[in-house]
Amino acid sequence: MFTKSIVRDAGTSADDGHAGLRAWYERVLPEGSGYSRRVESDLPTRVHVLEKGAGPPMILLHGTGVAAGFFLPLLAELDGVRAIAPDLPGRGLSDPIDHPRRHFRTAAVGWLDRLLDVLGLEETVLLGHSAGGVWATWYALAHPERVGRVVLVGPPAFPGTRCPLPHRVLATPGLGRLAAGLVPPGRESVLRFAAVMGERATLVRHPDLIDLLVAMRRDPVAESAARDEIHALVSPLALLTPSGFRRRTRVRPDELGRLTMPTLLVWGRDEPLGGVAVARGVTDLIPSAKLAVLPGGHAPWLGQPAQTAVVILDFLR
């Protein structure tokens, strides 16, 4: 059973801009399985979360351009944990926050720290996919006492990884805005991007997720938040550099060496950000890390939801 939670009450929000996304959540979540509740907190904005199950808590952080609903195939397979997937700021149904480009890391860590306080979690497992993996790593480095374990699924900006071409283009001044205007949001543009990420064949099995990604592209609040994240992580000279990521937002080898909690890397065999050799190199840099290589590209649970869940749950035992 899923719980749709609104953390923090009313005030001004992005509700009007999120109308299409709200309709998607109401349509996709099973009838009668979800409800909204308000949790009093000191968060300045509202945060929407999907919550499922009971047991040790695990926060799932999604990547750029998607929302918590993108985890639904995986959430359906996760048993024995309290899985909490928030829509990150400005994405899904969560209100946006100010994400200054030069202080993006500080803002991300602060937002997540306050969310854990609101949820009453002194310690949790963090699972981060794509850019959400960067958020998870940043938080674990800043607050190791609050993170019991870390699961990283295809994280970018790690040693040896390469920024995908579409994000390099979007981060390039002038060219990015032109490209965005030339590619209208729709099913075909979503599937073309999925092909770049090695997941076209798996995404077509999830038509509801295609609809989610189209709704994200059509939502001005979500598009603005995704664009801010891309510009924070990706260099404006990305087309001319090997990795494409900004120096200040890359996760350095010495930082990975300070991730002392047990860490699992889940890597798609066809991961476009870097091959299995890159994954092994990252794993070797983390003191208590293990690597699981699964069929698929950047989001292995799209094609292998049960197998991905088993790997994660085995790691948590």
Please give a handful of descriptors for the protein shown.
9-stranded mixed sheet; 15% strand; alpha/beta; globular; 317 residues; Rossmann fold
Plain-language structure description:
Strand 1 (2-7), helix 1 and strand 2 (38-39) form a beta-alpha-beta unit. The chain has 317 residues and is an alpha/beta fold. Helices cover 38% and strands 15% of the residues. Helix 1 packs antiparallel against helix 9, helix 3 (104-118) packs across helix 4 (131-142) and helix 5 packs across helix 6. The protein has 13 helices and 9 strands. A 9-stranded mixed beta sheet has the order 2-1-3-5-4-6-7-8-9, with helices on both faces. The chain has a single domain, classed as Alpha/Beta hydrolase fold, catalytic domain (Rossmann fold, 3-Layer(aba) Sandwich).
Q: At CATH's second level, what is the architecture?
A: 3-Layer(aba) Sandwich
Q: What is the helix content?
A: 25-40%
The total number of structural domains is 1
Strand order of the largest sheet: 2-1-3-5-4-6-7-8-9
CATH class: Alpha Beta
- So how many helices? 13
Query: Strand pairing plus helix content: what structural class?
Result: alpha/beta
Query: What is the CATH H-level superfamily?
Result: Alpha/Beta hydrolase fold, catalytic domain
Q: What are the low-pLDDT stretches, counting only 5+ consecutive residues below 50? A: 8-13, 34-40
> First CA to last CA: what distance?
22 Å
What integer value in Å does the Rg equal? 18 Å
H-E order? EHEEEHEHEHEHHHHHHHEHEH
